[in-house]
UniProtKB/TrEMBL annotation:
<dbReference type="Pfam" id="PF11013">
    <property type="entry name" value="DUF2851"/>
</dbReference>
<protein>
    <submittedName>
        <fullName>DUF2851 family protein</fullName>
    </submittedName>
</protein>
<dbReference type="InterPro" id="IPR021272">
    <property type="entry name" value="DUF2851"/>
</dbReference>
Length: 426
């Protein structure tokens, strides 16, 4: 047994209507179980409990055994001074606050229905799942309940992604254009070069991009040089030698500090080579002088596609790397790549910007993401094998959130679907 089952019992009213007493035979009436705390400190804040006829307001701490209070050193932590009730599975020792006063204890093991324990054991212990704990039950969930929960999970995912955006805004003095550039650049780097592109973008003053954006050639040279693509010593290509010389001028002009390292090509499809992606990024900023406001005003996928319809510069029509010719082909952003930019950069930014303006764009963002094709990866394929095929990006993103934040961490009792399983017939 884990503490999460006790958390579930406490917060889901599994004790309501039952005559409860403390281990010292005082009557207990739960008025309000409080709010679950996911961070450090007592497990439930702002609870309201009547003990022995006296109403108390404060916090509730939950443990498997009473002695865990001392094992976790709560008796010396002032954050636990306001604990009004200790809820445990087994009471094996009396506990006291730092000031020496005793804390009422509720022992649960004699109050819990056997069916609840059986369902808990079935969920976690009866077999080794191939994918998730509830895989045998997943296809039986009510479709309306699943749809609503996936919407909530997607908004939860946006909240988590917004943390990086808020940090970047703080670092840039609320420069939304700068934050857009950093996030776009990271995503133009994809998985392999994303972190390196992010670090390079963070070290590049966005005011320089504004100044050079009217000349796509200069902006492209700036990117190639700053992102470490002009360090090759053996390339004799005329274009390469020309822009390498021009970058030295830009480097002196803006006092640019060289970035340590260079992007990877290994493992990438040629269309994702950093040379191609940086050229496309330069063309995007040269085409739209106020890119942030342009993107924020677009409300549907097609309008966003129109803004992102750009290509790399003509040199790259028959090159993927400097000095090596290839077949002639205009290299534009694919819809699949634009979808990734929209999902990973633009929607989280729109979400944060709406909150900044004091507006609620939730319905609009859900509608936007619902019109984008879903990703295809091992997580999504596994859910599909359980009978839950993803119809769009909202569903696939929400299932990634479900798996990575709940299923893979066995947090079934913090999941609405897992809670629903335990609530059945208990």
């Amino acid at each position: 047994m884990k503490e999460d089952l006790l958390h579930f019992i406490w917060r889901c009213d599994k004790l309501q209507g039952r005559p409860l007493t403390t281990t010292t035979s005082q009557d207990i009436i739960i008025k309000n179980p409080g709010t679950l705390n996911l961070y450090s400190g007592p497990d439930f804040f702002n609870a309201s409990v009547e003990v022995g006829g006296q109403l108390w307001a404060g916090n509730v701490e939950i443990h498997l055994k009473s002695s865990d209070w001392y094992a976790h050193h709560h008796e010396t932590d002032r954050n636990y001074d306001n604990v009004i009730l200790h809820v445990v599975w087994e009471d094996d020792i009396s506990i006291f606050r730092k000031d020496g006063t005793s804390i009422p204890t509720l022992e649960l093991k004699n109050y819990i229905a056997p069916t609840l324990l059986e369902k808990y054991q079935e969920l976690f212990q009866h077999y080794n799942p191939a994918f998730i704990n509830c895989e045998r039950e997943f296809g039986k969930f009510d479709a309306f309940m699943v749809e609503n929960y996936l919407n909530r999970l997607y908004m939860e995912r946006l909240e988590q992604k917004s943390k990086l955006i808020l940090d970047l805004l703080k670092q840039s003095n609320n420069n939304w254009e700068n934050v857009l550039f950093v996030l776009l650049t990271k995503n133009f780097g994809s998985k392999i070069n994303g972190d390196f592109f992010f670090q390079c973008a963070m070290q590049l003053d966005f005011s320089i991009i504004r100044k050079e954006s009217r000349d796509v050639g200069a902006l492209e040279i700036l990117f190639f040089g700053h992102f470490g693509l002009l360090e090759e010593q053996d390339c004799s290509d005329a274009y390469f030698l020309q822009i390498k010389s021009e970058y030295r001028y830009l480097q002196r002009k803006y006092q640019l500090v060289p970035v340590f390292g260079k992007p990877d090509f290994f493992g990438l499809r040629p269309a994702n080579f950093p040379t191609i992606r940086l050229s496309q990024l330069a063309n995007l900023y040269a085409k739209h002088q106020n890119l942030f406001s342009t993107l924020m005003e677009k409300e549907n996928v097609r309008a966003l596609y129109d803004v992102l319809q750009i290509t790399s510069s003509t040199y790259w029509n028959n090159h993927f790397t400097f000095g090596k010719r290839s077949g002639n082909r205009v290299k534009k952003l694919s819809e699949t790549f634009m979808d990734l930019l929209i999902l990973n950069t633009l929607v989280p930014l729109k979400f944060c910007y709406a909150k900044h303006l004091g507006q609620d764009w939730s319905d609009g963002l859900i509608a936007l993401v619902s019109n984008i094709s879903g990703e295809v990866n091992s997580i999504i394929k596994n859910f599909a094998s359980l009978g839950s095929k993803s119809q769009n990006a909202l569903e696939s993103q929400a299932k990634i959130q479900l798996y990575t934040k709940y299923c893979s961490k066995n947090k079934c009792l913090q999941c609405s679907l897992g809670s629903n399983l335990l609530n059945r017939n208990t």
